[in-house]
Amino acid sequence: MEQIISKETILQLEQLALQARLQKARVPISGYGVGAALLGQDGRIFTAGNIECYGQTPSICAERVALFKALSEGCDQFTALAVCGGPLGEPLRGYCTPCGTCRQVLTQFCPSDMPVICTQAPGDHKLYHLCELLPFGWSRD
Ligand SMILES: [Zn+2]
């Protein structure tokens, strides 16, 4: 039951994640902007940036904002996620992966073999399956 995803879809998700990082990240504390694009099985794509709050504890990652947007809009089956991150105002260097908390939350709501596309430019990414990022995570399976 390997998730199949086309090159065109990967490219589209990469572009939307990169755009979301620049347009949606609200990071007054760290300046580290993250963008995410989550593809639902129904074809909808939910994009988000990370949001920092003073005191840090209530801050939230782009991946979870995208996931919670989707869930709250009635989308609860997912096909792929693209993510990117780095200091705003600088070119991206390296492949940002979801943090531990996001890996667990994604594992709860997404298929364990869902592709996670960690991108630094369109067509330039590392692709993992969710279960590679969090082996033995708590899932609905
Ligand atoms: Zn996170």
CATH superfamily: Cytidine Deaminase, domain 2
- Rg is 14 Å
SS class: alpha+beta
Percent of sequence in beta strands: 25-35%
Distance, first to last CA = 13 Å
What is the helix tally? 4
**How many domains in all?**
1
CATH topology call: Cytidine Deaminase, domain 2
Shape descriptor reads globular
User: Which residues form runs of ≥5 with pLDDT under 50?
Assistant: none
Helices and strands, in order, run as HEEHEHEEH
Largest sheet: 5 strands, mixed
Whole-number average pLDDT?
Answer: 96
Small molecules in complex = zinc ion
The helix content, as a percent range, equals: 25-40%
CATH architectural category: 3-Layer(aba) Sandwich
Number of DSSP strand runs: 5
Keywords: Hydrolase, Metal-binding, Zinc
EC number: 3.5.4.5
InterPro entries: APOBEC/CMP_deaminase_Zn-bd, CMP_dCMP_dom, Cyt/Deoxycyt_deaminase, Cytidine_deaminase-like
Protein name: Cytidine deaminase
Walk me through this protein's architecture.
The protein has 141 residues and is an alpha+beta fold. It has a single domain, classed as Cytidine Deaminase, domain 2 (3-Layer(aba) Sandwich). Helices cover 30% and strands 26% of the residues. It has four helices and five strands, in the order H-E-E-H-E-H-E-E-H. The protein has a five-stranded mixed sheet. Helix 3 links the parallel strand 3 and strand 4. The longest helix is centred in the first third of the chain and has 18 residues. The protein is globular and about 40 Å long. The protein starts with 6 loop residues before the first helix and ends in an 8-residue tail after the last helix. The mean pLDDT is 96. Bound molecules: zinc ion. The site of zinc ion has 6 residues, from helix 3. One of its GO terms (molecular function) is cytidine deaminase activity. This is Cytidine deaminase.
